[in-house]
């Protein structure tokens, strides 16, 4: 319908809207030339009145284009209101639920989606413990209980250790520590003393010297720390160390936190752990 | 087809598999009586050979039931391999992409999904800064740059401040501090001294005394800290404080970290901030 113009997009949910945002954005990413003006309307029918949705869709409808709605709504009344608007509705649940009902020979529950709901207390504890472990063990701050870590991420400063650690802790309830590789660690032939006994649980990050220099420059502009020469040296030493100690490693240069987390899960076989249940 | 038996489920993706896991699990949550044995196969066609998927689906196929596959795969060759197996395939992309192609009058990009890809460097910095800010300001550890916080979560110990803070930082790049309400804060009539000047950015958490006692018991069993009497007192004082200082608040008792985050985003209008772009 349009190319340069901006199209209004709504993620509408009777729950958090996280599923609608996740899949909706994944779908929109396939149309990089288009411009979208995104809005999320969560908790429709409870916190947010249904009339708010109707009004928002109405006011986003122009003579040129109707808004696009990515919907994860189970309630039939709310679905009818959305269907009654001018919006183009991409229903992310209904069709697939019908497929699953047929295959499982069971009707779907009628309550609204509870996937991002609380879950059991045990899982909540695991997740909370994991986030606290990650904070305690960020950037080598603590060696306490390092033997209980599921994985120890090692890397030079600014290769992405901290966000990757948090993502794995928050979403997978894994105990993740991270440890910086500083200049001091490189005169020796092995891993830093504190993590060396746990080499089998170490995973290394690297990046390109250029990228590292850009990222460090953001923190300390025009410093030795951010110089291309220093970054080149640290990256080469880190990669040598990983190879020498047989620590698997990965470059963060062209990867997001989600991609790095997915590779680490796979490479360290962490999906097989009992507390693996993903909570995206 | 089956009820008590366990059904094999695969989340298969040529990218991280996060979208397939998120929507797939949201759909499966509608069948609480069924048992599923979940497997994620990410990076198919790059890290993971296509033959691995074919073999995994083959070995999970029994005379009684075929596995269910939730697929987010763009590559036609890989899709053909999955379609050629005995599995029941729920395709989370293809149908919706066709709908979007028609509506936007543009063909979808042929590369595999990049939604969980790196994005621009600026967004990466925002996210990294947010996680570091959250770690620095966890549990009232620092008052530095508190005036730059997008939101300050206040609550008694163990109401869910830390995981909620991390979720908002990691997924929305927001600067989130959190501050504990301890017994010492309650003799006064106002918010704790450090956060009081920023009352308009405070958001309170509460829970039920019973739930708080359970959660605290996990940390320090049979202590005054975890006693029902102490929890009742702290919760009542915190809620009184929120009302008196007009700080919006929410109970974490029946809500997940995702749900609390979604309510806070909505209530504090944080979706309107320039750095809002969600990165689920």
CATH-level-2 architecture of the largest domain in chain A: 3-Layer(aba) Sandwich
- What oligomeric state do these chains adopt? homodimer
Number of domains of chain A: 2
CATH class of the largest domain in chain A: Alpha Beta
Number of helices of chain A: 9
General shape of chain A = elongated
Structure description:
The structure is a homodimer of 280-residue chains. Chain A is of the alpha/beta class and 280 residues long. The first copy, chain A, has two domains: 6-104; 121-272, 3-Layer(aba) Sandwich (Rossmann fold). The first copy, chain A, is built from nine helices and eight strands. The first copy, chain A, has helices at 18-28, 50-59, 76-83, 94-104, 121-136, 161-172, 209-219, 228-244, 257-267; strands at 6-13, 35-41, 68-72, 88-91, 151-155, 176-180, 202-206, 249-251. Chain A has a four-stranded parallel beta sheet with strand order 2-1-3-4, with helices on both faces. In chain A, strands 6-5-7-8 form a four-stranded parallel beta sheet, with helices on both faces. In chain A, helix 5 (121-136) packs antiparallel against helix 6 (161-172). Chain A is elongated. The two termini of chain A are 33 Å apart. Chains A and B meet through helix 1, helix 4, helix 5, helix 6 and helix 7 of A and helix 1, helix 4, helix 5, helix 6 and helix 7 of B.
């Amino acid at each position: 319908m349009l190319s340069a113009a901006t199209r209004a997009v709504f993620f509408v949910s009777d729950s958090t809207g996280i599923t609608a945002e996740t899949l909706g954005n994944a779908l929109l990413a396939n149309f990089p030339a288009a411009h979208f003006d995104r809005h999320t309307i969560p908790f429709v029918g409870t916190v947010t009145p249904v009339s708010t949705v109707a009004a928002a869709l109405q006011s986003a409808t122009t003579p040129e284009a109707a808004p696009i709605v990515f919907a994860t709504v189970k309630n039939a009344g709310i679905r009818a209101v959305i269907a009654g608007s001018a919006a183009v509705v991409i229903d992310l649940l209904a069709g697939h639920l019908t497929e699953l009902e047929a295959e499982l020979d069971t009707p779907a529950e009628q309550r609204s989606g509870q996937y991002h709901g609380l879950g059991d207390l045990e899982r909540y504890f695991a997740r909370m413990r994991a986030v606290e472990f990650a904070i305690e063990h960020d950037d080598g701050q603590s060696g306490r209980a390092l033997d209980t870590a599921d994985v120890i991420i090692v890397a030079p400063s600014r290769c992405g250790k901290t966000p990757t650690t948090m993502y794995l802790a928050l979403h997978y309830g894994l105990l993740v520590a991270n440890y910086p590789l500083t200049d001091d660690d490189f005169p020796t032939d092995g891993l830093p003393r504190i993590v060396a006994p746990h080499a089998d649980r170490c995973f290394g990050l690297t990046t390109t010297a250029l990228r590292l220099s850009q990222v460090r420059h953001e923190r300390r502009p025009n410093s030795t720390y951010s110089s291309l020469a220093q970054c080149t040296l640290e990256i080469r030493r880190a990669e040598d160390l990983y190879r020498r100690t047989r620590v698997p490693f990965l470059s963060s240069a062209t990867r997001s936190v989600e991609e790095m987390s997915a590779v680490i899960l796979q490479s360290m076989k962490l999906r097989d752990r009992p507390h693996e249940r993903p909570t995206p």
